[in-house]
């Protein structure tokens, strides 16, 4: 769409909104044994999966605003080294870093959601459109698709990202599934996610408490999530920078020091769009 808005961090293309030092912090982080990572390629069900995990951990009392959500399920590449330090535990770290560009652990747990690349491309286009300044005139879908196929988008080529995780899909600490699976049978996959997080504490607890299980399913509905994530990017940056001192992340200060460019962008989608299968 607008390759001028991309930067390279140690060979990885990311949006220039991110700060290199925070991306490198995610790359170099040594996972703790109790860490949970959502490792999905962008626009493949990342936010939905994060929100499901938050709901499981909180018994259906997930954050009701994007700031609290980011504190409980931090976007590591964006928030930097303090994200796992300040994150309430249990919690989940989200980073779309390719498998080869992160430190992997056999004890930490990983959730990877794949998606039909056609639907992924459509969703990614609408998301990036909303982050493309109006000074960029060529914002056609055709132009974006060429960049997507060539891997000239944030986090690179879809298949290069997918294949290494697919090869680890049978690992006992990896839960690999598709967006289509989650959409068609949400209940079953919420239970499988809960089992990965802790079979006795979460999975069996949901099976034994139908009201709790239903509360979590209701909380993770598309309509409810739209209300939570109805916020511009620069809006939640400001909110994170103004947190009380006990919650504030020092690694976010780089956005205050370097500033966040606020300019008029094309109309796109937010973090939650249609949530459909076959939208392409």
CATH topology of the domain at 18-115 and 158-253: Rossmann fold
Strand content: 5-15%
Helix share bin: 40-55%
Question: What separation lies between the terminal Cα atoms?
Answer: 18 Å
Order of secondary-structure elements: EEHEHHHHEEHHHEHHHHHH
Under CATH at level 1, the class of the domain at 18-115 and 158-253 stands as Alpha Beta
Structural class, from helix and strand content? alpha/beta
Let me know the CATH homologous superfamily of the domain at 18-115 and 158-253. P-loop containing nucleotide triphosphate hydrolases
Structure annotation, total helices: 14
Q: What topology, given as strand order, has the largest sheet? A: 4-3-5-6
Largest sheet: 4 strands, parallel
Number of strands: 6
CATH architecture of the domain at 18-115 and 158-253: 3-Layer(aba) Sandwich
| Spatial shape | globular
Mean pLDDT: 89
**Low-confidence spans:** none
Radius of gyration: 18 Å
């Amino acid at each position: 769409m607008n390759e001028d808005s991309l930067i390279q961090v140690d060979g990885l293309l990311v949006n220039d909104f991110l700060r290199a030092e925070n991306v490198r912090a995610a790359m170099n982080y040594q996972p703790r044994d109790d860490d949970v990572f959502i490792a999905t390629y962008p626009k493949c069900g990342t936010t939905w999966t994060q929100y499901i995990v938050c709901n499981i951990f909180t018994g259906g009392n997930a954050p009701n605003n994007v700031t609290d959500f980011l504190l409980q399920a931090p976007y590591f590449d964006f928030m930097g080294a303090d994200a796992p330090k300040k994150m309430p535990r249990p919690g989940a770290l989200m980073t779309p870093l390719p498998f080869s560009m992160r430190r992997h652990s056999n004890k930490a747990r990983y959730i990877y959601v794949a998606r039909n690349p056609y639907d992924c491309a459509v969703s990614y286009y609408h998301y990036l459109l909303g982050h493309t300044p109006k000074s960029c005139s060529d914002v056609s879908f055709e132009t974006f698709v060429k960049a997507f196929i060539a891997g000239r988008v944030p986090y690179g080529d879809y298949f290069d990202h997918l294949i290494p995780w697919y090869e680890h899909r049978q690992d006992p600490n990896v839960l690999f599934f598709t967006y289509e699976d989650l959409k068609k049978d949400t209940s079953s996959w919420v239970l499988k996610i809960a089992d990965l997080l802790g079979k006795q504490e979460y999975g069996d607890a949901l099976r034994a408490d139908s009201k709790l299980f239903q509360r979590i399913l209701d909380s993770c509905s598309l309509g409810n999530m739209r209300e939570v994530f109805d916020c511009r990017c620069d809006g939640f940056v400001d909110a994170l920078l103004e947190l009380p001192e006990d919650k504030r992340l020092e690694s976010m200060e780089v956005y205050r020091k370097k500033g966040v460019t606020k300019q008029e962008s094309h109309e796109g989608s937010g973090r939650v769009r249609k949530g459909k299968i076959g939208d392409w």
